[in-house]
Amino acid sequence: THEEELPAVDVFVCTADPVIEPPTLVVNTVLSVMSYNYPTRKLAVYLSDDGCSELTFYALHQASQFAKHWIPFCKRHNIEPRSPDAYFDKPTARPSDCLLELCFYVKKLYEEMKSRIETMAEKGSVPPETRSQHKGFLQWSHHNNVTKRNHQSIVEIVIDGREEDAVDEDGDRLPTLVYVAREKRPQFHHNFKAGAMNALIRASTEMSNGAVILNLDCDMFSNDPDAIRDALCFFLDEQSGHRIAFVQHPQQYFNVTKNDLYGNSPLQTDKVELAGMGGYGAALYIGTGCFHRREALCGNKYSSKVDGQGSMNWKSNDVNGRGRSSQKTANELEEASKVLVSCSYEEGTQWGKEVEDVVTGMKIQCNGWKSIYYRPQKEAAFLGVAPNTLEISLIQHKRWAEGLFQIFLSSYCPLVYGHKRLPLGAQLGYCTYLLWAATAFPTLCYLVLAPLCLLQGIPLFPQVSSPWFIPFAYVYGARTIYSLVEGLMCGYTVKGWWNLQRVVLLRRSSSYVFSFVDTVAKQLGLSKASGFAVTAKVVTEDVRRRYEEEVMEFGSSSTTFIIVATVAMVNLFGLVGGIGKWWWVDGGMSLMGLQFGLCSVVVGLNLPVYVALFFRRDDGCLPVDVMFKAVGLASLAACLMAI
User: Fold this and answer.
1) Which UniProt keywords apply (predicted)?
2) Is 5 exposed, middle or buried (0-12, 13-18, 19+ CB in 10 A)?
């Protein structure tokens, strides 16, 4: 395809909090997508700032200046990855001698920019002398009284790709760069990330109207400069491209440890389960790393009426030849877009409804479109920041499981909403994830009842000498062996697979319990909807060091860790007490064999919990009060069982 025939692409980057998601992290993602090997006149990048922070705007303005050096440097010398932090921190990033001086120069410019942004972040505000650098800073003047949850619409074109002076140091045109902070008022529900996406869709329609939309979380930088062109291979396919609504990449991370301590990158899910969903043309939309056809994302149903080449005509979509908006000035576009991202615009409309990422994808598929799950073999297209503490990981999964379970209990349940519109296999595939929270209580029954019954001599399973022992042993053994072999084939180490079993156990016995209870309480009207919990992306050096050494991080007295520690202690009591009670009894080990095996596995998985309770003394251990509470609750459970 000739470059003039390529579709225009709008890139959406979303951030919500300048403390939890530092501005330097955000601009690294922005710079990585501004540097794509793609015609810059057909590329527009939008940053949605739900924190409405002048620090984030300052960082974006600084990045727009640095981009004049960074983009030509990357394209001239085929630099990868194109996130400055990721490139300069890469162990193999030593350039050839002829590039060494230039590399040091660009790195110096980047370090200076990063230092200015971090200095401003430490001060907490932008000084008056800096505000004169761009008219956008006037939006945070004192008379506007801007706060995170109460502010006017802010739309600022930081780089207007149509302008003659919007060029880099080589004289090549820069992509359009836009800052968007949608209006927020206390009396209006803003629908979190879904609302931010809706606002970006409307604003970008007015400004650039790219036929393809890429949406990214602010911590997920582009790792492949040709990712857009790869995705277009699906959209422009002459036979089936006209049916493709979106191309979804898996969530992959650059900071996963060798043995994936917290199971952040489940290879079996990425390589087997999600790929299987894609085989039905029903890939899950996971909210980031996804290329969308704007037509499908806006709710239009699939139509077989396409052009003669088997795909839609993309030529009408050009960022700098924009049809109705090409004659408008930057100020006119900004003012028109402010109306589109205001609270009143979407009040009482379909725009004003919060829709989960997974529901968005399912609705698109039920409208007749197909979706692609694409996991490139050469390298990950996008890399994010994985949680590097157990607490952050569990909070993240609590949020995911809660949102997914709400979908299952709503009118968007795939077995109902997708009936006759999605293949049965796709419906069941959706349910696999939507029912994460529902796995909590069956798991807790095995984790709590089995050891307590072992202490009291109550057999829950057939004894080893019984023929009925065989099916129980077969199911557990076959499932374990299959999971291990599949994990090794997908790229796990044995220790990595073991770590995943531990983390799944911890999620089901803590995060998913809270997800289930909170969701049911909301359905019954017993509690109000909670806020969107943004997971922290920054930790201390000690925490980072322990993470790299694969030492589990606890370090707090949260209710989650009290549950985790209590379950671990119940199983330890059950195993030790059971051995003491049944080892000497003739036939005792045969009678309680399966319960001994179950408790032994659970105790083995919880070894890091016992170490954190009794042996570690660093800041990442479990506090003493957690130990006393866990021992006390486990003892109370054993006493109540005896009664």
Assistant:
1) Cell wall biogenesis/degradation, Glycosyltransferase, Membrane, Transferase, Transmembrane, Transmembrane helix
2) exposed
Residue that wins the pLDDT comparison between 321 and 249: 249
pLDDT on residue 1: 53
Q: Are 241 and 310 in contact (CB under 8 A)?
A: yes
pLDDT of residue 569: 97
49 annotated as belonging to a binding site for a ligand: no
Pull the structure tokens for residue 611: 């170490």
Within 10 angstroms of residue 24's Cβ, the number of other Cβ atoms is 20
| Higher per-residue pLDDT: 554 or 532 | 554
**CA 47: distance to chain centroid?**
17
Q: Are 234 and 310 in contact (CB under 8 A)?
A: no
Q: Which residue has the higher pLDDT, 628 or 465?
A: 628
Does 586 count as an annotated binding residue? no
The candidate with the shortest Cα–Cα distance to 598, out of 452, 483, 433, 489, is 452
Neighbours of 642 (CB within 10 A): 9
CA quadruple 236, 240, 246, 248: dihedral sign: negative
**pLDDT beyond 90 at 251:** yes
Mean pLDDT of 562-578: 95
Which of 215, 217, 218, 223 lies closest to 86 in space, CA to CA? Answer: 223
Q: CB count, 10 Å around CB of 146?
A: 18
Question: Could you give the C-alpha distances from 578 to 348, 375, 565, 587, 593, in angstroms and in order?
Answer: 62, 48, 19, 13, 10
Widest distance between CA atoms in the chain: 91
Which tokens go with 69?
């050096």
Distance CA 521, CA 371 (A): 34
Closest Cα to residue 76, out of 50, 58, 112, 103? 103
At 403-433, the pLDDT tens digits run 999 999 999 999 999 999 999 999 999 999 9
So what's the pLDDT on residue 94? 61
For 375, other C-beta atoms within 10 Å of its C-beta total: 15
Is 338 assigned a ligand-binding role in the annotation? no
Lowest mean pLDDT among 368-372, 484-488, 592-596: 592-596
Please identify every residue annotated as catalytic: 50, 357
What is residue 567's three-state secondary structure? helix
Answer yes or no: are the C-beta atoms of 340 and 199 closer than 8 Å.
Answer: yes
Q: Quickly list H helices, 457-508.
A: 469-490, 494-506
Q: What is the pLDDT of residues 505-527, one digit of tens each?
A: 999 999 999 999 999 999 998 87
Name the residue type at position 320.
Answer: N
| 50 known member of a binding site | yes
User: How many beta carbons lie within 10 A of that of residue 114, not counting itself?
Assistant: 20
User: Between these two residues, 394 and 148, which has the higher pLDDT value?
Assistant: 394
Q: Are 385 and 253 in contact (CB under 8 A)?
A: yes
Structure confidence at residue 611 (pLDDT): 97
Could you report the per-residue pLDDT of 301-318, keeping only the tens digit for each?
887 765 444 455 555 455
